[in-house]
């Protein structure tokens, strides 16, 4: 009986919350849709200094990323992965004004997101802000699918 209840709980969690390890959307990562080859996020929704996490459904599966306004006022975007730790699929969390790698613990100042590439730095995403809207090309998000291979972990 306990086995059936635990199995049912795992199945419900996978269905309702999503599990990125199985190629599904992570809980707390709302899925964004592309229109006319780009995704658009109103700046007012991400302008509070907090990291906002999203998921884009590429042809190979979900591509997770975050957007935040750094302390210098710039809207920044990066994949929730890096060149070094991406295979672990752990991503980042925010601690004050820094993003912290959940795998190795390295910290990255918010004003360096999109500025520094490589290593364990959050992998940058090209973006632009126009008329109060953050715009990211769907092709740029799809290019980040390499950080989220369906067959690892």
Question: How would you summarize this macromolecular structure in one to three sentences?
Answer:
The chain contains two helices and ten strands, in the order αββββββββββα. The protein has 153 residues and is of the alpha+beta class.
Walkthrough of the structure:
By secondary structure, the chain is of the alpha+beta class. The protein has two helices and ten strands. The chain has helices spanning 2-16, 138-143, and strands at 31-32, 38-42, 52-58, 61-69, 75-79, 92-95, 98-101, 107-109, 128-130, 133-137. The strands form three sheets. It has a four-stranded mixed beta sheet with strand order 1-3-4-5. The two termini are 29 Å apart.
Estimate the mean pLDDT confidence: 84
The neighbouring-strand order within the major sheet is 1-3-4-5
Reported CATH architecture: 3-layer Sandwich
The strand count comes to 10
Query: Count of DSSP helices?
Result: 2
Compile the SSE list and pairings.
Blueprint: H1 2-16, E1 31-32, E2 38-42, E3 52-58, E4 61-69, E5 75-79, E6 92-95, E7 98-101, E8 107-109, E9 128-130, E10 133-137, H2 138-143
Parallel strand pairs: 1-3
Antiparallel strand pairs: 2-10, 3-4, 4-5, 6-7, 7-8, 9-10
Domain Membrane iron-sulfur containing protein FtrD-like: 46-148
Organism: Geoalkalibacter subterraneus
InterPro entries: FtrD-like
